[in-house]
């Protein structure tokens, strides 16, 4: 017998555990009804394995927890701010830092200081809060991601790439002066955690430099993006995640960051800029929305934990185990024949609800329905990323996204391989009875970001 194995394991051991509550099918049915078939409205106590999001749900290290004890809770000039500033400059290379309570706080400030009403903001697929802040500031968002990103079966390795022809078309149509910046997300959340290649970033940099257009990075999952570049892009195999992360940032003018993902903290974010004048504007505006510019809505201890988490996030062994776990789950699902977005992305597995439930039309919310059914089976909480998340345009019409997905998002350093097995097996059970599943109708729709609070009933 030939044994050929190349297993990886987590580069940490477990020091403390949080006990989970198990529920019965009856309890889950009742909980789901009370939550209006929206997994966002479930109580976390009603959930067994929580894959709603990887945002703010990671386990901090003992180093981060001890950093919490070193919080300097001064209103102004906390030493933790300076530690964070140092981490941002050393790991990402940006000159100026404005902390915010989380990513959308930074998006708000960036949008307000950069966008004039009537502007155009191209982006590699939308993200919910990012696009809304651009729109509230008066811009119209245009998707410039490559077409492959909208096809869940395309195996292209860098489905987050920007299509330069689409950008050029916008420049031709509206003029470069109408485009304050291009928003580039690494990785692309709604495409399935898909990465952007370095080659594409370099080409975009060359193109925009010529046209005088800035590039603002949404670097929420940049270390995960760097891992894919290391593994799949020619010339990067021997580079470290840290080197690749810094190179990505070097092709951009600034970034918004949600520390709740890569940086392994439960709260925190920032806006980073290289231009001093824009930084001054941002530093002034943060006082209005978040807090003084040396804390931006965070406690000193939160800034310390984020500074440490940023450094931990770019360690090669960490990233290998992180993405390794996601790939393990994805491959297991594929063995059961479950249709998922390919290639497997960074922060979770995205199940294709259109292929899973082909008999349910998009108007009857297939992904919302599937997320509800997954919860019913074993108490696993996932999230809709389809027509409900896409919302409506400024004329009030529904967006109809090509991708109708259920996201199984994996928190960092939280669940074990055995949990991954349970998740795949539960999904397979739902897949076996897929033909019996009926859609939903929306009975309550909030005005903004409806997916968070909308309520549904079974058809
Ligand atoms: N950009 C991306 C790509 C994100 O995924 C998120 C958050 C944000 C910006 C906003 O950051 O939550 O700190 O304000 N995504 C979470 C998710 C909510 O579940 O995907 P935030």
Can you summarize this structure?
The chain has 2 domains: 25-54 and 316-458, Aspartate Aminotransferase, domain 1; 62-313, Aspartate Aminotransferase, domain 2 (3-Layer(aba) Sandwich).
Describe the structure.
This protein has 459 residues and is an alpha/beta fold. It folds into two domains: 25-54 and 316-458, Aspartate Aminotransferase, domain 1, CATH 3.90.1150.10; 62-313, 3-Layer(aba) Sandwich (Aspartate Aminotransferase, domain 2), CATH 3.40.640.10. It is built from 16 helices and 14 strands. The chain has a five-stranded mixed beta sheet, sandwiched between helices. A three-stranded antiparallel beta sheet has the order 9-12-11. It has a two-stranded parallel sheet with strand order 1-10. Strand 5, helix 7 (198-211) and strand 6 form a beta-alpha-beta unit. The radius of gyration is 21 Å and the shape is globular. It starts with 24 loop residues before the first helix and ends with a strand. The mean pLDDT is 97. The structure holds ligand F0G.
Radius of gyration: 21 Å
Record field, number of beta strands: 14
| Class based on secondary structure composition and strand pairing | alpha/beta
Name the CATH architecture of the largest domain: 3-Layer(aba) Sandwich
What's the overall geometry? Answer: globular
Strand content: 5-15%
Amino- and carboxy-terminal Cα gap: 54 Å
CATH topology type of the largest domain: Aspartate Aminotransferase, domain 2
Q: What number is the mean pLDDT?
A: 97
User: What string, H for helix and E for strand, traces the elements in order?
Assistant: HEHHEHEHEHEHEHHEEHHHEHHEEHEHEE
Under CATH at level 1, the class of the largest domain stands as Alpha Beta
List ligands, each type once.
ligand F0G
| Helix coverage percent | 40-55%
CATH homology superfamily name of the largest domain: Type I PLP-dependent aspartate aminotransferase-like (Major domain)
């Amino acid at each position: 017998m030939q044994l050929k194995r190349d297993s990886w394991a987590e580069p940490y051991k477990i020091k403390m555990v949080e006990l989970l509550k198990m529920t019965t099918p009856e309890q889950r049915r009742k909980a789901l009804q009370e939550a209006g078939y929206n997994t966002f409205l479930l109580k976390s106590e009603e959930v067994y394995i929580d894959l709603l999001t990887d945002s703010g749900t990671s386990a901090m290290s003992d180093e981060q927890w001890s950093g919490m004890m070193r919080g300097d809770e001064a209103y102004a000039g906390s030493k933790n701010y300076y530690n964070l500033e140092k981490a941002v400059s050393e790991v990402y290379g940006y000159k100026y830092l404005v902390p915010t309570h989380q990513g959308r706080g930074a998006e708000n400030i960036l949008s307000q200081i950069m966008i004039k009403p009537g502007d155009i903001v191209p982006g590699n697929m939308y993200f919910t809060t990012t696009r809304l802040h651009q729109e509230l500031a008066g811009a119209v968002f245009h998707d410039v991601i490559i077409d492959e990103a909208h096809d869940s079966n395309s195996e292209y390795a860098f489905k987050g790439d920007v299509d330069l022809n689409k950008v050029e078309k916008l420049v031709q149509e509206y003029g470069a002066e109408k485009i304050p910046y291009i928003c580039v997300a690494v990785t692309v959340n709604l495409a399935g955690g898909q990465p952007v290649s370095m080659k594409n970033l370099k080409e975009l940099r060359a193109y925009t430099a010529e046209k005088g257009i800035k590039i603002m990075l949404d670097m929420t999952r940049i270390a995960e993006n760097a891992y894919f570049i290391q593994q799949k892009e020619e010339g990067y195999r021997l580079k470290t995640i840290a080197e690749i992360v810094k190179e990505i940032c070097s092709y951009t003018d600034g970034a918004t960051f949600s520390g709740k993902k890569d940086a392994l903290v439960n709260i925190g974010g920032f806006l980073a800029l290289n231009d001093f004048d824009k930084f001054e504007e941002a530093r002034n505006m943060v006082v209005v929305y978040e807090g003084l510019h040396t804390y931006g809505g965070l406690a000193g201890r939160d800034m310390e934990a984020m500074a440490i988490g940023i450094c931990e996030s770019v360690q090669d062994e960490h990233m290998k185990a992180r993405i390794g776990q996601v790939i393990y789950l994805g491959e297991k699902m594929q063995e059961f024949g479950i249709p998922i977005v390919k290639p497997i992305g960074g922060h979770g597995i995205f199940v294709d609800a259109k292929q899973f439930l082909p008999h349910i039309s998009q108007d009857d919310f297939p992904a919302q329905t599937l997320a509800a059914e997954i919860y019913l089976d074993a108490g696993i909480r996932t999230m809709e990323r389809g027509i409900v998340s896409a919302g409506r345009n400024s004329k009030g019409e529904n967006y109809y996204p090509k991708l109708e997905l259920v996201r199984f998002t994996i928190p960092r350093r939280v669940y074990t391989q055995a949990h991954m097995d349970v998740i795949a097996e539960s999904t397979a059970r739902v897949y076996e009875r897929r033909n019996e599943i009926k859609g939903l109708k929306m009975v309550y729709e909030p005005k903004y970001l409806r997916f968070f609070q909308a309520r549904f009933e079974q058809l």
